């Protein structure tokens, strides 16, 4: 999702109370940033943030952090949040490749990846957010019992991701190739913007849940 550049979006984000600056020392400090010891769940590539903001409203006892590379996209999420504020959510505008600069070892309880960019060319495989290179980063910040949840309608990306999970020696706990017709896995499912768009076209949604240990 690459919206046109919105002039001034970087400046708006830099001053917004929900946005953590990439230069802020957050590593190991998230519980004091939120002022509680609630679990920390992050979404990487949150887009306009519908999914993570819905979860934050449903689960006030969990802290949520949305990560998005583009300020013009993140700005849409911020606008929605300001209309209806929440205490248990923060955003970071950053590239996920720098994620270990923002979180300490064992600091994160759950990572969500939703409809991540497929990067279809083989030579770009390591840019996919489920590549073994990214899994190695997630392993550093996830708790021992922490989980990774991934949803997509892209069959090639899903197959690639299952291979990477195996290659990186992660454990696959559950998966489905048709989430919306899988009663067990669909229970409590919160749809993302892309999920609404692609499932309306009839594309089955694929999902897995995995952990390192
Ligand atoms: N998760 C949302 C959903 O399901 O509706 C948005 C999906 S959109 C296809 C992928 C999003 O991931 C885009 O907003 C893109 O800017 C963001 N993204 C892609 N690569 C990223 C990276 N390396 N770090 C942070 N965000 C990234």
Number of DSSP helical runs: 8
Query: How helix-rich are the residues, as a percent range?
Result: 25-40%
Structural class: alpha/beta
Low-confidence stretches: none
Cross-sheet strand order for the largest sheet: 1-4-3-2-5-6-8-7
Bound molecules: S-adenosylmethionine
What summary fits the major beta sheet? Answer: 8 strands, mixed
Can you describe this structure?
This protein has 8 helices and 8 strands. The chain has helices spanning 9-15, 30-34, 50-58, 71-83, 132-141, 155-167, 183-186, 193-200; strands spanning 19-20, 40-44, 63-68, 89-93, 108-114, 142-152, 171-176, 206-211. It has an 8-stranded mixed β-sheet, with helices on both faces. α1 crosses α4. The longest helix is centred in the middle third of the chain and has 13 residues, at 71-83. The relative contact order is 0.15. The mean pLDDT is 95. The protein binds S-adenosylmethionine. S-adenosylmethionine is lined by residues 1, 44-47, 67-70, 73, 95-96, 114-117, 192-195.
Quick synopsis:
With 213 residues, the chain is of the alpha/beta class.
Write the layout of secondary structure elements.
Elements lengths: L8 H7 L3 E2 L9 H5 L5 E5 L5 H9 L4 E6 L2 H13 L5 E5 L14 E7 L17 H10 E11 L2 H13 L3 E6 L6 H4 L6 H8 L5 E6 L2
Parallel strand pairs: 1-4, 2-3, 2-5, 3-4, 5-6
Antiparallel strand pairs: 6-8, 7-8
The structure holds S-adenosylmethionine.
Structural descriptors:
alpha/beta, 8-stranded mixed beta sheet, 8 helices, 23% strand, binds S-adenosylmethionine
